[in-house]
């Protein structure tokens, strides 16, 4: 971080506001003295910062914490989760999920749109559906501070342009722009018209696995670790990396496509145009084929075929055991390469690899022993957040600008709304929607 | 960066000192107004910071710059390169180089120690040789602010512990500690006794390719790029990565072992214990073997065998051309995987790949076209710094603490020397050594 000219005191104050808000957002309620310890700021500075965050509507103080403290009890501080929220959107192959999420990662309301299996959906149509659901979910008392979108595709970070999303049949879709345009248009709601977001609210789009690692890092199995590899095994291998505490994005936001490491140049053809990419050797399709479930991916299949093979492997079925060993071996081969490249302190396995962690673990560890150069300090753990990790990561992405500069963002947002107020009629309270998780 | 408690103004001042000194160190002399532009600090702040850096002995001001400026001419500021220096050490397979380097990257004196080819040298013996050479190189007027050591091996960043350096026959060598202990012992010099470094001078050790990328990023082909892959092709593939402007170190400093990506699981046995690692498929030995120069690595071979094959390929010799194509193809395969993982904006090719860039380039680009997922924004360029890049990187590593906090480091160093002065007799001027590049 560089302290900018002319406003050095101001920059320090804004930076410290960010540090304190981020602590409360990630760690949950803390006493003022815990905040002082965690941030290395003194108690009087903390008191002033908490008061400022309070007047911005971001935190509230409550009764003092008496748990085993000596001396003066220290007031508890917590984020206010209800009013300033973000919109988190996950665009998966078969469904889209939209949620409103408050500070602290609290999901206020969530709704799922099922997509017809295998049918390509047009981006504009999908984005309109997202808008309609979002308009229902957001309460009039809530202000959307940001929009985060997770998508199975290769995304340019700068503007959310989706270079390619093969499983959706999308190429060169300006998704960030489409979402922003759609959500900014005022539409009819009960008692008036209303846009879902204001004109300056950022819309950020990223790859779903990149957001999976963000979520696991913020609230899951990688909390407190600064160098993390995250692999999510499905048909493809989704990957995300945290380097020195930050999400690896690369020059354009395309980084983290771990599934396309070339591990076997004479291997199977991959959807990317290459051959023997990691995901063709260690992905779900190969696992099922090796286990004799070649046809198991048809949607009419009643049970989860992966769960079926995993259960068979656990029961000692020889073909299922061999399939798990072979996929585990390929998983280990690619992972050894990445351990050599990144020297992570933790590897988080999600998707199929997380759900059936104990079935794959031995084979992976065996390969790591011979192929990883570094001393065996790296820890393999299953993902903690399950299938919602990308949605949670999308919310974290959307909160990022607010967390980085609470004062700057709220001041800008207030003046933007003042300017836009005359052009809109504010709605009366919207009806409550189904799918809400929390009132 | 987190601004620490209690001393916020002080933290900002120290941070800004760092920003200004780093600019001058990397960009060379700048006028005060250029400094203001580059740092976003205003002219009066720059004036005060330059005065402070001047009083610390780090920079000097000279005549105003009249080049096409309007209004008041702006004084030129430059680093003082002569007095505060670092010791840069490169431990390669056949030789060790020791140099004194000033701010701005100026090499003041340099000396090379040849090692017997193929003979394992004991760490303690080698470190004593380094000490003797260093004692000769450092002038009594110079103060060593840091020591940076580049080594062909897997190094723990924290304390410079060399986990393994196969080409030196070393394993589990506490190199950082050995160097620090040896350089801190006062030894006889003309007119008295003197230690090469003071008791608190940091000794930092890193892998030579990691320092190669640091050097190319600071002063070479990757200057100004924040996401860089560096590959140096020799017998192995040395690798280094810059992510978001910072060197990728990983959890322990072992990151960047790009040569051991598994690209061909049925390929040749690799020195690491694996099989078909990238460097076994795209390294120097394979290149020479494919070109029919299996025996060319004997030391008595008069000419550089790689140069010989490269010249043959350029002259159209079919076997040499095929060898270059095959190695280029494997280089491209691994590189495509890494481009998918890192999304770099620049790939810098050093060693054999840099020297014979035009012989390999076409094959590499061809593979990248089919295997890299991202749009073709990545640029391949040959390294700019040549064989001295690791030494230059070692100097940058050694300067890092001073550049990060000039005031803090110099204050600590002065008080340490005041404390130690009574225990030492300062030497009279040492005789000038051979090998000096600059007086």
UniProtKB/TrEMBL annotation, chains A, B:
- PANTHER family for this protein: BIFUNCTIONAL UDP-N-ACETYLGLUCOSAMINE 2-EPIMERASE_N-ACETYLMANNOSAMINE KINASE (PTHR18964:SF149), ROK (REPRESSOR, ORF, KINASE) FAMILY (PTHR18964)
Using the UniProt annotation, give all residue ranges assigned to the region (Disordered). Answer: 417-439
Please report the name of this protein according to its UniProt entry: ROK family transcriptional regulator
Origin superkingdom? Bacteria
**Could you say which protein family the record assigns here?**
Belongs to the ROK (NagC/XylR) family.
């Amino acid at each position: 971080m560089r302290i900018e000219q002319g406003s050095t005191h101001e920059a320090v104050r804004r930076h410290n506001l960010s540090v304190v808000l981020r602590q409360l957002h990630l760690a949950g309620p803390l006493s003022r003295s815990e905040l002082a310890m965690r941030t290395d700021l003194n108690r009087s500075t903390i008191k002033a910062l908490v008061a400022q965050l309070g007047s911005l509507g971001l935190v509230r103080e409550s009764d003092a914490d008496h748990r085993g403290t000596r001396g003066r009890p220290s007031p508890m501080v917590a984020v206010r989760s209800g009013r300033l929220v973000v919109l988190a959107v996950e665009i998966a192959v078969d469904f889209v999920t939209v949620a409103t999420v408050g500070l602290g990662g609290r999901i206020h309301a969530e709704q799922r749109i099922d997509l017809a299996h295998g049918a390509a959906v047009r981006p504009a149509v999908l984005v309109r559906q997202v808008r309609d659901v979002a308009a229902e979910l957001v309460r009039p008392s809530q202000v959307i501070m940001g929009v985060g979108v997770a998508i199975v595709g290769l995304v340019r970070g700068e503007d959310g342009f989706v270079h390619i999303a093969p499983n959706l049949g999308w190429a060169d879709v300006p998704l960030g722009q489409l979402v922003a345009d759609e959500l900014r248009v005022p539409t009819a709601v009960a008692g008036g018209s209303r846009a879902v977001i204001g004109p300056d609210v950022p819309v950020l789009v990223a790859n779903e696995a990149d957001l999976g690692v963000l979520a696991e890092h913020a609230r899951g199995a990688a909390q407190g670790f600064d160098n993390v590899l995250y692999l999510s095994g499905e048909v493809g291998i989704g990957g995300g990396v945290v380097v020195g505490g930050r999400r690896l994005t690369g020059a354009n936001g395309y980084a983290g496509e771990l599934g396309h490491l070339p591990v076997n140049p004479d291997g199977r053809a991959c959807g990317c145009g290459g051959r023997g990419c990691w995901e063709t050797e260690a992905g779900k399709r190969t696992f099922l084929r090796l286990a004799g479930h070649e046809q198991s991916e048809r949607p009419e299949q009643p049970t989860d075929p992966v769960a079926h093979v995993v259960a068979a492997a656990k029961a000692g079925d020889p073909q299922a055991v061999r399939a798990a060993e072979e996929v585990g071996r390929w998983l280990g081969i690619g992972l050894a390469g990445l351990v050599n490249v990144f020297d992570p302190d933790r590897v988080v396995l999600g998707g199929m690899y997380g759900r059936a962690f104990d079935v794959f673990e031995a084979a992976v560890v065996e390969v790591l022993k011979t192929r990883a150069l570094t001393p065996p300090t790296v820890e393999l753990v299953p993902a903690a957040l399950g299938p919602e990790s990308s949605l949670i990561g999308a919310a974290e992405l959307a909160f990022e600008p607010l967390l980085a500069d609470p004062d700057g963002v709220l001041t800008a947002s207030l003046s933007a709304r003042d300017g836009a107020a005359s052009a809109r009629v504010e709605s009366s309270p919207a009806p409550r929607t189904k799918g809400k998780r929390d009132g």
